[in-house]
Specification:
Layout lengths: L2 H34 L8 H22 L9 H21 L8 H12 L12 H23 L2 H26 L24 H24 L6 H24 L2 H22 L3 H27 L6 H14 L10 H8 L16 H32 L7 H16 L9 H18 L9 H14 L5
Helix pairs in contact: 1-2, 1-5, 1-6, 1-15, 2-5, 3-5, 3-13, 5-15, 6-7, 6-15, 7-8, 7-9, 7-14, 9-10, 9-14, 11-13, 13-15, 14-15
């Protein structure tokens, strides 16, 4: 092999090695985040190591995106990059900009109270500038995982999704082992709390979130196996059995975590995944029967889950917490009180009825807490993130049904995390923040994939995918 052919072969081999190395680095960082980052309050050596590892990985991923194929130049990518940049910029700016630009009735009253005791008012936009800067570093691993996942080819993104499922199963196995061990056992990474099938997490609700993500990804795999099933392909049956087993484990374990929202999200996410995959293998009586049976099972399960939620009413404290968070945020509008200021400011502003032996660590609503911490800039970030999500979904739905399965599934799983954030705070843990970043990178990477789906190659790729599906091959 000589000349142009040799150069092409060498370049392709180098690119493949770089992709494998990038996948290994992203997987290592994701494992480190999930195993050591299960708490929203404690940051140990593992979280610090993840932040250090994220720095070179961010540079490497940025280099890969700049020198990648045309998918990196897709304009829709910039909505996500702008969103990620704004998320990082807000806490950094809060830690350095002067307090004069923040304003707000609450800040004025606080300065007056401090002045009575001869204490100077906070001089920065954030009331807790050190905590705000720490919050920016808290985002680094997730940003690195997102950028690297976005730069990886489709096969590597599938491996990354499989790792998420494997981590969820490992966390579940650890959680089961914790139930039979004493509270101070080495199996419990947070011995200050009684083990409650937490796995890698301090809060079992976040274990539930990861299980929902794993079941969603496994459901997609099962749907692909069912849609492409042909007699005489035993490996397909094995894949389907493994996926069904993961879904079963998640369904059984979720009620044991005590997360009622997790049960509902599992049902809705799996139903959406089945509906999204059905166009790839519709046409026969079997496919229609599978779709109808799946939707019927989902409807019955959802009905039973809602009845269970009415009988086992959720703690009513979360409603007052969210309401009071909104009231305090209004006093510190329009720029917010600063990332990391929630705990001390809530303790200061809360009425006596809500003062407890244990401090309130979060608002149990991610969006209310962002409004509390960053005001109008937070609203801008949320709008920009919503636009990025909508653009990604639009691009995925424009692809042939046989090609969009992984991207749509990752987007559904990401949506489950975002929905759970309405009543909890999974994204406050480095673990779930890293998982969400991996899912976002996979979804965006699949949406702007360049393996023949752009321009004139779209129709050719779609035809090839249909042919593979008809022969029982997974695209």
């Amino acid at each position: 092999m000589r000349g142009a052919d040799a150069d092409h072969h060498h370049g392709g081999h180098t690119h493949d090695l770089q992709s494998r190395a990038g996948l290994m680095a992203a997987c290592a960082l994701l494992v480190l985040c999930v195993v050591s980052g299960g708490s929203s309050q404690e940051s140990g050596a593992g979280v610090f190591a993840a932040q250090l590892l994220a720095l070179p990985l961010l540079g490497w991923a940025g280099w890969r995106l700049l020198h990648a194929t045309p998918r990196a130049a897709n304009p829709h990518r910039y909505a996500w990059l702008a969103f990620a940049g704004l998320l990082f910029a807000i806490p950094v700016l809060q830690s350095v900009l002067p307090a004069g630009m923040a304003g707000g009735e609450g800040r004025t009253a606080l300065a007056a109270d401090l002045g009575r005791f001869g204490v100077e008012a906070p001089s920065r936009w954030s009331l807790a500038p050190a905590a705000s800067l720490a919050a920016a570093f808290h985002l680094l691993p997730a940003l690195a995982i997102f950028a690297m996942a976005l730069s990886l080819p489709a096969a590597a993104q599938r491996r990354l999704a499989q790792l998420v499922v494997a981590l969820a199963v490992a966390s579940l196995v650890l959680g089961v082992a914790q139930l039979g061990a004493p509270q101070e056992s080495a199996l419990n990474p947070y011995p200050q709390w009684a083990a409650a099938m937490n796995g890698f997490f301090a809060n079992p609700n976040h274990q539930a979130t990861l299980l929902v993500v794993a079941a969603t990804l496994a459901c997609a795999r099962l749907a692909m196996v069912v849609g492409a099933w042909r007699p005489g392909r035993p490996h397909r049956v094995t894949h389907g059995v493994v996926a069904a087993l993961v879904m079963l484990l998640a369904a059984v374990a979720l009620p044991l975590t005590g997360s009622r929202a997790g049960v509902v999200l599992l049902i809705l996410s799996c139903a959406l995944v089945v509906a999204a995959h059905w166009p790839a293998w519709r046409g026969g009586v079997r496919s229609r029967a599978v779709l109808v049976a799946s939707m019927a099972i989902a409807a019955i399960a959802l009905f039973l889950a809602l009845r269970w939620m009415q009988v086992e009413a959720i703690d009513e404290l979360r409603g007052p917490l969210r309401a009071l968070t909104g009231e305090i945020a209004a006093r510190y509008a329009p720029m917010g009180a600063g990332m990391g200021s929630y705990v001390p400011l809530f303790e200061q502003e809360a009425p006596r009825e809500l003062l407890m032996a244990n401090y309130v660590n979060h608002a149990h609503n991610e969006y209310a807490q962002w409004w509390f911490a960053a005001g109008a800039p937070a609203l801008l970030a949320m709008v920009l993130g919503s636009i990025a999500l909508a653009l990604t979904l639009r691009m995925l739905l424009r692809q042939p049904a046989q090609l969009r399965g992984l991207g749509v599934t990752a987007l559904v799983a990401l949506g489950a995390i975002l929905a759970h954030s309405w009543v909890d705070y999974p994204l406050r843990t480095p673990a779930m923040l890293a998982v969400a970043a991996a899912l976002a990178g996979i979804a965006v990477g699949q949406a702007i994939r360049d393996d023949g789906t752009h321009n004139g190659g779209r129709r050719h790729a779609g035809a090839a995918a249909i042919d593979r599906s008809q022969r029982g091959m997974t695209p």
